[in-house]
Amino acid sequence: MPKLRWTLRELIASGETIPVPGVYAPSIAMLAERMGFKAVYLSGAALTGLLGMPDLGIITLTEVAMFTKYISEKISIPLIVDADTGFGEAINVSRAVRVLEDAGASAIQIEDQVMPKKCGHLSGKEVVPVEEMVKKIVMAVNSRRSEDFLIIARTDARGVTGIDDAIERARIYVEAGADIIFPEALESAEEFRRFAQEVRAPLMANMTEFGKSPLLSVKELGDMGYRLVIFPATTFRASMMASKRILEIIRDRGTQRDHLDLLMSRSEFYSLINYYGYEEEDRRVDSIARGLLERVKRSAGLKI
């Protein structure tokens, strides 16, 4: 995989508030990097959506690791990976950390929901006892190979037991060794502000659409003290809407010729994936192989 231009730890230490778009495929991650984003986020919701499944924790570690590897091999910026509840108990978290770190993740996010987990902005969630989440965090910290692989602890307590419990849990998670705290589904700007004032740790905010949180800007959240702002399913939802639109056009009009402005051009996509670089490398190796074969034939007196 490409050498990282900077680690996630370095980004957080810079004091800058970093917008982190959600990605669900290598090409989307490559596009985000080309457009100047400094980190990306592999969203469980977007990935399960891509696979046509609900975000209920039914995706497997193997599937997440596969996409983590595919994406990390194509970018040189940090990749944060949504690991849901850690794919099981604390002992499962240990394996998840090793597998995803080896696959190229720069950080993983683990949440304190009861399985089967739900989207953090839906009702009906439950949270595990604090002790269970603490055990997972400790296991994650002890299992990582590099100190630059960060552990993000997400609490869903706001929508279950209230903001006070979410803050208390976050403080405990920091003591357990979490590098970053992610309060899910806060319901007002004031709650975001209060959380940042009372939890002394690097914080990550989720600006997902159609949820319980107000859509605050990166600047607004940065002024409150948040260091990372994720947009987990935005690119996936935009892609689905664009696909729906062009499918309607093809169905209703029988041609897309009047709507090419809705599509990324072949040349732009080829530039993104370095298509002609692959062709050039193939020609270079072909030339080397032909030259080698000719030398072998001459030295051996072969006529093939």
Strand order of the largest sheet: 6-5-4-3-2-1-8-7
Averaged pLDDT:
95
First-residue to last-residue Cα separation: 40 Å
Report the count of strand segments: 8
Overview of this structure, please?
The chain has helices at residues 8-13, 26-34, 44-50, 61-72, 90-103, 130-143, 163-176, 189-198, 218-224, 234-253, 266-273, 275-300; strands at 18-23, 40-42, 79-82, 107-111, 150-155, 180-183, 204-206, 228-231. By secondary structure, the chain is an alpha/beta fold. It has one domain: TIM Barrel. It has an 8-stranded parallel sheet with strand order 6-5-4-3-2-1-8-7.
How do the strands and helices of this protein lay out in sequence?
Elements: H1 8-13, E1 18-23, H2 26-34, E2 40-42, H3 44-50, H4 61-72, E3 79-82, H5 90-103, E4 107-111, H6 130-143, E5 150-155, H7 163-176, E6 180-183, H8 189-198, E7 204-206, H9 218-224, E8 228-231, H10 234-253, H11 266-273, H12 275-300
Parallel strand pairs: 1-2, 1-8, 2-3, 3-4, 4-5, 5-6, 7-8
Helix pairs in contact: 2-4, 4-5, 5-6, 6-7
Brief summary:
It contains 12 helices and 8 strands.
Task: Pick out its properties.
alpha/beta; globular; 304 residues; single chain; 8 strands; TIM Barrel; eight-stranded parallel beta sheet
